[in-house]
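Bench log, entry 3. Co-assembly request; chain sequences pasted below exactly as received.
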Amino acid sequence: MAPNHKPQNRKYVLLRLWKYLYQYKIILFMAMLLTFSSNMLSLIGPSLAGRAIDAFGITAGQVNFPKVYENIALMILFYVFSSVFSYLLAILMITLSQKVIFKMRKDVFERLSDLPVKYYDTHQTGDIISRITYDIDTINTSLSNDVIQIFTSIITVIGSLTMMIIISPTLVLVFAVTIPISIVFTRFMTGKTRPLFRKRSAKLGELNGFVEEIISGQKVIKAYRQEDVMIARFDEKNDAAVDAFYEAEYYSSTVGPSINFINNLSLSLVSVFGAILFLMGRLSIGNVSSFVLYSRKFSGPINELANISSELQSALAAAERVFRVIDEPIEGKDRDHAVELTDPKGDVKMQNIHFGYDPDKTIIKNLSLHAKTGDLIAIVGPTGAGKTTLINLLMRFYDPQGGSITIDGINILDITRKSLRKAFAMVLQDTWLFEGTIFENIAYGKRNATREEVIEVAKAAKIHNYIMHLPQGYDTVLNEDGINISQGQKQLLTIARAMLLDAKMLILDEATSNVDTRTEQQIQEAMRQLMAGKTSFVIAHRLSTIKNADTILVVHDGNVVEQGKHDVLLEKNGLYAEMYYAQFQNQN
Amino acid sequence: MKRLIEYLKPSLSRMSVGLIIKFLGTIMDLLIPWILAHIIDDVAPQKNTQLIFVWGGAMILCAAFAVLANITANRMASKVAARTTRQIRHDLFSKITYLSCNQIDTYTIPSLISRLTSDTYHVHHMVGMMQRLGVRAPILLLGGIMVTLALDPALAMVLIGIQPFIFITVYIVSKKGIPLYNNLQNAVDMMVRSVRENITGIRIIKALSKTDLEKQKFAQVSNEVVRREKKVGVTMAITNPMMNLYLNIGLTLVILVGAYRVNAGLSQPGVVIAFLTYFTIILNAMLSISRIFILASKGLASFNRISEIIDAPEELMIEETPLKDDDFHISFDHVTFSYHKNQANLIDLNFKLKAGQTLGIIGPTGSGKSSLIKLLLRFYDVDQGGIYIHGRNVKSIPRDELHKMFGIVFQNDILFADTIAENINFGRDLPQEQIVFSTQLAQAGEFIDTLADGWLHRLSIKGSNISGGQKQRILISRALAANPQILVLDDSSSALDYRTDANLRKSLNAHFENTTTLIVAQRISSIMHADHIIVLEEGSIIGSGTHETLLKTCESYRAISLSQMGGEANGTQS
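Structure output for the full assembly:
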């Protein structure tokens, strides 16, 4: 597909994640400061413990109690501070990561809103949802733990290393062996697991895409008893997702124990050489003890870093998917000199339009038409002739590959999309209502619509009575997949919504296909008043509803094959006449 | 929780083996500091360098064994997690596909989606981590305590003394955490809904230039998710520092007590040093445990949401009902129904159809036409009366058998992102000829032939790469392909032009004469030739009979007819 589907550069992804963090640099800075102090405090702990133990003396009765007490009191004080700091730190980090997550979700969503319609026609809803939930969640988990963990680790490593060097530079040499091993191993494993984590995110996205599709279509699946078939298909996707998960874990789960092994190795070396150094009289027993404690402290974060590296891999894979959405090219920017379409007259001209959703498969070939201000243009034709495509082009959901469309003589490519779309009121066959009250749904297109206005259009759309029957009237909340409203009623609501718009041009794409004809006629009556002076494009199959059109365009195979008024077309006895009479044809 | 254990049962043997391996590996981890203490306290004073190396070698051996054991055990744990998740997801999905429509309406689709996706991976995460940390951490903890008991019981008592504080903290925090996580997941539902709503409505949103408003709306929802996540995060974050504090205080106490014991000659400094090492192990174990509890709270909240669905009572059970003795294929006997059980959506419907007859259903928007179809398929149960097929109450017919009788196209039906052939076949393993034939009958053959890859043409999501009329023809093919005994077309020719519609009717008549057909339509022309027509208005039948009778007896029908066909309404039997 798009060229940006190739795996992104890891450094680049990291850099971008960092930029998100960097936006909150004050919090980040405070967090680092806290990490630093709380770690410093706990680092001092072992050395205090060592001092206390040194005060024990060698044999019974030699314990220097005042010294022990002194060190113990200090230890408690330091540990309390350390805990308080680390709680504050956790809160800071949660705040930070939630801010980042919020920003990231916002960026994804805003980008989604600006993407061309085509994106939605080619990407599964569930996969998009998966990016905004699972993938961002994964990043979140990693951010809230790992950033601080990395920082802590660095501090602890440097701190304990310093302490160890102070105690015994010779013993530290042990780490010259083990640390390089850790680094090489971790690098090797991350290289190995990166593609696996990428796959894991992708497979989960696929699974989610499938789930969304199937649950949305549950009615038809029930009717065709396809439950078991769908379950079998689900199992396939589920297996793929689970296997991808397992594969990633298969490798990443070796990292922890392996690094632990390397740590144990250094511990063994430390004790052997520590003992030898003690024998040689170069170290006290208390020093050996402190050194061991520090070396444990030292290896802990290294262990953590290794674990983090796999978590980080999964976060990076998720981030890639998220950034891919954010990087998706938005609906082409308006041209630089694009003008606002203000107060259009509604003179629409299409000239020699060529178009195919797939550029290789032309659907519309050389189509031309002219709708004068106030005209009612009906577009009819056999199914699949490209009628809806015309609407997609008019609204600039897609741009034609050849030819031009002008409104009042201005090429629509030179008009800002926003003002172009605002100039149209559109009612489509598939009704879209959102979870909100009926009032909100009708008033959706017009800012600050008053209740009176809404009631007025609802009356014109013949839906007022139904609304008044509902328990909360206009304040009834519609569920997205709500059952308490029929398809036809939904359509009436969307018609009311369109009526409320103050647009100069009107598009009705099968807008009344689910409405009974009587209601439709009443609506048309209302519309006619509304449409006076407005250019309207009507796609309808019920030819009875378009008899009065100023121009009827008969589209066939992407061309306008006939054009004219109802009577003229009937006389012509062509495709239109054939279609018109077909509706009265006896089936025998 | 009990349910979760049930899910883990099949993996019990694997888990136990993993646990044992992990246990052994962990013992090795514990041996290492013990050897360390031994080297420092016993071997070093002997001034025997060789012995030091021997013990050092033993340490390395232990470490090597530990790494192998831990990797094996981790992989086994991942396997168990994968298996368990697979099963939970499978069960959840199966259950969802078999939920009644009523239940789906109640749970709502976005919530079901997020349970199946986001909640299942929380559970996956939990099961995996619980084993990896959950086995290791308690063993380290218990083992650590045992070894310390052996080393010096008095000092170990200090350690044990702190444990109750730790457990109380963990208990309180996780008790608070679960409802908070549940709360969070509910907000995630809202977010899923919001995103879904936007995707489905993108054309309208763009047409109305409402993207800015939608962005704001999403920001609100997203903000709520973040707020709740923060709340639960802040609560759960208490555990770690508290654990740290308890243990470090314990450590300090050990030194204090150790000082007295060493002074009294009851202990040695080396023992205290070893103690401190064990303390670090125990501290890390405790931190792991607190992490487990955070994970577990999150996972359990999600698991509860999942089992809420899995345990949902089965609705629409098969009921034994007496046979009705008549020779009608389909009959509605005084059927009354309402979705919300307050206001009736269908009132006292009464009609009968013989096999092979065609029923036309017409009526204004919202009069209950689609609801009638849903009742016939038993998506919902009637409130009163009964629906019979061949004298059998639909409640008594097994779901599979019932639905097998039907070929159906719903209003706003759905096509899937798959090939045309598969969309028609729809998993039924129909022979190729039958599919081809069905497309000819459904008037779809022609346009399929014009596609470069014909049958194998892949539809994009929700069939968005073909026109509305083409979609309907594929849907009709799907309905016809298996030669159903009952064909239901719910406003499924609305996007067909008249010519195609007429041709469709013709071929239906010719090839499906034994099929009982129910057609819901807005167009008179689609149903005027039906054997029987019912006119619905506000859920009641206000007229029934043939086209001719209805023209005479039903005012509404006459009005519809006039409006659609003008003066030609009567004279079409040419």
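Chain A touches chain B through 191 residues (CB under 8 Å). Residues 348-582 of chain A form a domain with the Rossmann fold fold (CATH 3.40.50.300).
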